[in-house]
Amino acid sequence: MDEEPERAKRWEGGYERTWEVLKEDESGSLKATVEDILFQSKRKRMIESHGQVRLGMMRHLFVVIDTSRTMEDQDLKPNRLTATLKLMEYFVEEYFDQNPISQIGIITTKNKRAEKLTDLAGNPKKHTTALKKEVDTACVGEPSLYNSINLAMQTLKHMPGHTSREILIIFSSLTTCDPANIYELVKTLKALKIRVSVIGLSAEVRVCTVLTRETGGTYNVILDESHFRELLLHHVKPPPANSSSECSLIRMGFPQHIIASVSDQDAQPSFSMAHLDSTGDLNLSLGGYYCPQCRAKYTELPVECKVCGLTLVSAPHLARSFHHLFPLEAFQEIALAEHTGEGFCQACQGELKDKSVFTCSACKSVFCVECDLFIHDTLHCCPSCIHSQGPS
Amino acid sequence: MASEDEISLLVIVLDVNPIWWGQQAQREDEFTLSKCMDAVMVMANAHLVMSRTNKLAIIASHCQESHFLYPSKHWKAGDSCGDDSSSAGGDGKYEVLSVANKLISEEIRSLMARTEVKGHQTDTLMAGSLAKALCYIHRISKEIEGKVVIKAAEDCALQYMNFMNVIFAAQKQNVLIDACVLDSDSGLLQQMGLLLELCGIYLVSDLSCR
Asked: What start-end ranges are recorded for coiled-coil regions in this protein (chain B) (predicted)?
């Protein structure tokens, strides 16, 4: 199983003269170099797109959070557990923002056992409330990789073949306590096409390296909190789909939103089906979304109908996933001195003061650094291209 | 009332599609683009007067481009259009208002004069104007909230993808969008409002009572 050559570790390589990166200018100031480094780090997130790759849009992701004794360590402030849970809340929000038709489940592991915190669901609120409550738990014992992966696998193996099945483990301990051979489990994972990725909080652990390599996931160890955040954000984007996943036609329902007012004769208040098993606030509502197959009522989308099992989504949610398939091309960078046109950014009308400007290759309009970042991260369409292509 | 330090930015996206306005003028002589512009300027002035720190931007959305009517990019902060001081001191009006009004009317005059409408492109590019508005808001207000008001005439269904992208970006930035649709229903704006809880107000105005 381990015939692949291991990557050379950093201490095995040659000397790195890191002090040579910083260069002083004539007056002895490092300002230009520092600005350069900041600029490059801002642009670092323009990862080159994979091109024509099939992406897994409907994702079922289990996040395993290690709540063992090592999470009380204070190298992340105030302690590892609190920092991790806060970042997880942010991750859940971003995840559902970018993948609205996907689902997340959360598992915690401590005391050599694994427990499901929340089930696979498409509603971010449930997960964030559970995460907020988890801050108070005590961190004891040792984690168990085998048990947590097993628990996740029990649910994931029943998922339909066209969805992408993933497990993300946030692992802080250097040990694991397993009841059986984990390499057997790795074979099962490969057979079920489940992709496991690990984010380590302490150091690189060999069993995690093997686990991620065999299943096709990624393994990273954090340097500090902002690096942790960046690594989490890598997992928000949909991964390339497994070549062997079946592509089948998926049934989805697009319910209409019915608004009824009190003055309507036929309108009767009713419960939403999603609240049937919740003990929290039960609200009667007049209008809502009715499942086209079984007419069960729901107040929010996307949701899986509890009565007939149909996935209910709305068109904007699918539109949200669209930009992953056709990502906006990176703009070309030109130095300010070479730019001959107007001195104004065409998106925000601000003056172009940074040392380089960005041009869209399709419509040749000019943007400043801030607008370039905004366009690629949030907007996903070039404001000028929308104009020149007209209705298309 | 808002506290002294809060800056409120209002961006108005106005649809100046000449085809639609031309047809409108034929249907009903009373309501023309200039009347609409007057009404818009009243609202803009009201916003500027409410607090000293309020900011404003107006974008005109045309068939092939969207143009910032105010603030003009050629007008730097230090330049107070002081070469004709008659406008500033003329009638004792709040200076910001008189400058803004003058600038807006000049810009829209030049915009309508210089743009030629090519035959096949008759639909307004609302998504593009909204995208520019969002970039502007992103630049100006890193912490403060912005608000966009749209006065739209009719929908262009072919722009769905871009429109959706822009709406999601606005949602992420916590920008409220109020829509005022003249004379017809807009399914796109309605869908945006209902599903995304973004729309503050959705109005369909009846032109005869303007």
From this structure: none
Average pLDDT, chain A: 79
Taking CB atoms and an 8 Å limit, are B135 and A378 in contact across chains? Answer: no
DSSP calls for A109-168:
EETTEEEEEEEEES-HHHHHHHHHHHTTS---S---HHHHHHHHHHHHTTS-TTSEEEEE
In terms of CA atoms, which chain A residue is nearest residue B72? A349
Q: Which residues fall within 8 angstroms of residue B14, CB to CB, at 6 or more apart?
A: B36, B37, B40, B58, B59, B60, B61, B69, B151
Instruction: Kindly list the distances between the CA atom of residue B60 and the CA atoms of B16, B37, B109, B110, B186, in Å, as whole numbers in the listed order.
Output: 6, 11, 11, 12, 19
pLDDT in tens, A233-271: 888 887 777 665 566 677 788 887 776 666 666 666 676
Mean pLDDT by 10 residues, chain B (210 residues): 63 78 73 77 83 80 75 52 45 74 81 69 70 81 66 64 76 74 65 57 48
- All residues at 6 or more sequence positions from A123 whose CB lies less than 8 Å from its CB, including other chains: A274, A300, A303
Q: Which two tokens stand for residue A55?
A: 């992406």
Q: Is B23:B68 a contact under the CB 8 Å cutoff?
A: no
pLDDT of residue B171: 75
Q: Count residue pairs from A and B with Cβ separation < 8 A.
A: 95
What ipTM does the predicted assembly reach? Answer: 0.71
Q: Cα-flanking dihedrals φ and ψ of residue A358, to 5°?
A: -120, 135
Asked if A71 and A139 count as a contact pair (C-beta separation under 8 A), the reply is: yes
Identify which of A259, A314, A391 has the shortest CB distance to residue B123: A391
Token pair for residue A331? 């703009």
Tell me if A379 and B196 make a contact (CB, 8 A cut-off). no
